[in-house]
Amino acid sequence: MTKATLSKSRRPTGRPLQRSDLPSGAALADVSASTFDDLMRAVEEIRMTRGEAAPFVTGFLLSGVIGVADQASDGRQMLSALFHAGELIDLRRDARPPQGRPVALTDARVIVFNPSRMDAALRAHPDLAAVWLSELREQAAALRDHCGDLNCKTPVERLAAALLEFRRWPQEAARKDVLNANGAAPSETSAEAAEGQDVANSAATVLKLPILRNHIAEYIGVQPETVSRAFRTLESERIIEIERKDTIRLCDLPAIRTIANGGRPRAGAR
Amino acid sequence: MTKATLSKSRRPTGRPLQRSDLPSGAALADVSASTFDDLMRAVEEIRMTRGEAAPFVTGFLLSGVIGVADQASDGRQMLSALFHAGELIDLRRDARPPQGRPVALTDARVIVFNPSRMDAALRAHPDLAAVWLSELREQAAALRDHCGDLNCKTPVERLAAALLEFRRWPQEAARKDVLNANGAAPSETSAEAAEGQDVANSAATVLKLPILRNHIAEYIGVQPETVSRAFRTLESERIIEIERKDTIRLCDLPAIRTIANGGRPRAGAR
DNA sequence: CGACAACTTGAGAATCGTCAAGGAAGGTGG
DNA sequence: CCACCTTCCTTGACGATTCTCAAGTTGTCG
Questions:
Q1: How far apart are CA A63 and CA A70, in angstroms?
Q2: Is the CB of A49 under 7 A from strand C?
Q3: Number of other CB atoms surrounding residue B27 within 10 Å
Q4: A78–B140: do the CB atoms touch at under 8 Å?
Q5: How many CA atoms lie within 13 A of B45 on its CB side?
Q6: Contacts with B43 (C-beta within 8 Å, 6 or more apart), sequence order
Q7: Dist. CA B251–CA B239, nearest whole Å
Q8: Under 8 Å between Cβ of A187 and B183
Q9: pLDDT tens, position by position, B249-264
Q10: Furthest-apart CA pair in chain A: how many Å?
């Protein structure tokens, strides 16, 4: 359990977060300006480094990947859900204490809401409540899908489903200098700009794996070794190409969809 | 796929549903009277018989058990979620078409909401939105728990977790005459009354399985044969007693909790 | 270069899925 | 009341698959 120091801080610049600062596609971008400002009063932005856990239950993920980690009494680790940039996080449950704690699977920045203050905002702003409802519905639906995947699918099928899920996520910038750049990236030559274009255009086929294989394994409920073998299986069938450890090319998307949908049952399946 | 005729009907009595008609513990009971009446205007109550599917996406389960069924392209069935009496059902997802359809795992009665009318009610009544949010949070949390169970647990552990889940559900009346009775059950002798008491008092240890073993299997992601063997395992260790096919006694609740929490790993687990 | 983390590969074994057959419970008709 | 049927569940044997363990490879960083 790597428990690094948690750096809590207001926004470095001192100014409150603007809607324009949100990741693209974030549900929160749909609320009115006044609602947004009300919600963002007195929030805390925390930065988490990979492997770090944090005790918050309500928040908004600005960047990175957060997993909900749980562990069995014998130490088996598991990830019951993943959150990507732009998603609302609400782990509360009224009836019982919340299960599982948020763990950063990559370096991440989170806006942490005070739960009671957030509830007040939800009561005061119907548009915020509508967005929140929509988000929770979507997350519940995604969780049902995931349960279905875990229920009766083989490792290859689960991996294919996970790849499609990752593909729907907003792609984080691939290069670090882009990631860190506040303004223009240093030495933005035309070649690099073209590469950036490539990344954007070929988002359909090139996928940067957002999390470690280890975490993929814990998410799809198999051992890391099995994940490795499943990647090899798909590669040997020319369905994907493994360009780097964390970058794969989806060569045959229809085949991936077919497999994810249950096209690779056990040998003697009924 | 048994597709029986779907009996759509207004309330038999003709009068609108009252809050007092709700199953005990239903979240909807917390909204104000006017909100409730507004939501219940022009709803439809449908009765589903076991095995029957229905195309609704938003509703409220009055009685029975509804499962969200999905099937892989090769025909494997799976249940990605279960709903019990008193729960709100909202399967919509804004981004993509909903996956999985509601299937009755027992005879069930459902109040079906018109989605757009329901959205209007949610916008108009903050207390309704609050209840809905709470319900969706709870369901998402339950789904995360279930994903965790499926992720890395053995069949016996999954079954133990499912038993605990069923135990938290409101117990349906065990005897049919009670279930069908509108007023007093026929021939309510003191002996039968005492039996009813027994059922209520010993709810802690006697559990009526709300769904077939087949469906338990599809829910926890194993084969029916494996469910059967898992039951036997628990019985042979005096942790449960199988009184009838659909009735078991939970003799050692702490042991069940321990197992559900991961106390029964594979033999050579790390 | 060495240290470390992340990932891969191979071999063996436990486990669960598969198949086939049998059993229990409940309803139906004679 | 009994034979018969259907549905649901159980049991046993076997084999494919995935977990486990151990060792090796790759890539990154100081």
A1: 22
A2: no
A3: 19
A4: no
A5: 17
A6: B17, B111, B112, B113, B114
A7: 5
A8: no
A9: 999 999 999 999 988 8
A10: 62
Q: What does DSSP say about strands A88-90 and A44-48: parallel, antiparallel, or unpaired?
A: unpaired
DSSP string, B23-74: PTT-GGGGS-HHHHHHHTTT-EEEEE-TT-B---SEEEEEESEEEEEEE-TT
The pTM of this model reads: 0.88
| Average per-residue pLDDT for chain B | 85
Which member of A74, A81, A143 has the closest CB to residue B265? A74
Residue-wise pLDDT tens digits, B35-59: 999 999 889 999 999 999 999 999 9
Task: Classify burial at B174, counting beta carbons within 10 Å of its beta carbon; exposed 0-12, middle 13-18, buried 19 or more.
Answer: middle
B223 is near strand C: CB distance < 7 Å: yes
A148 CB and strand C closer than 7 A: no
In this structure, what are the phi and psi dihedrals at residue A169, rounded to the nearest 5 degrees? -70, 155
Per 3-state DSSP, chain A is made up of helix, strand and coil in percentages (nearest 5) of 45, 20, 35
- Rounded Cα distance between A233 and A236, Å, is 5
Handedness of CA A189, A190, A196, A199 (dihedral sign): negative
- Nearest Cα residue in chain B from A95: B138
User: Which residue positions in chain A have pLDDT lower than 70?
Assistant: 1-15, 173-204, 268-270
| Chain centroid to CA B92 | 19
3-class DSSP state of B213: helix
Token look-up 């076991």 returns B50
The DSSP code for B91 is -
**Residue written as token pair 């799976």:** B78
- Residues of chain B positioned with their CB less than 8 A from the CB of A141: 91-93, 98-99
Place of tokens 């549900």: A27
**C-alpha R_g of chain A:** 20
Residue B221, by phi and psi: left (phi above 0), alpha (psi -120 to 50) or beta? left
Eight-state DSSP code of residue B260? I
Compute how many other C-beta atoms are within 10 angstroms of the C-beta atom of residue A214.
14
Separation between the CA of B43 and the C1’ of D20 (whole angstroms): 56
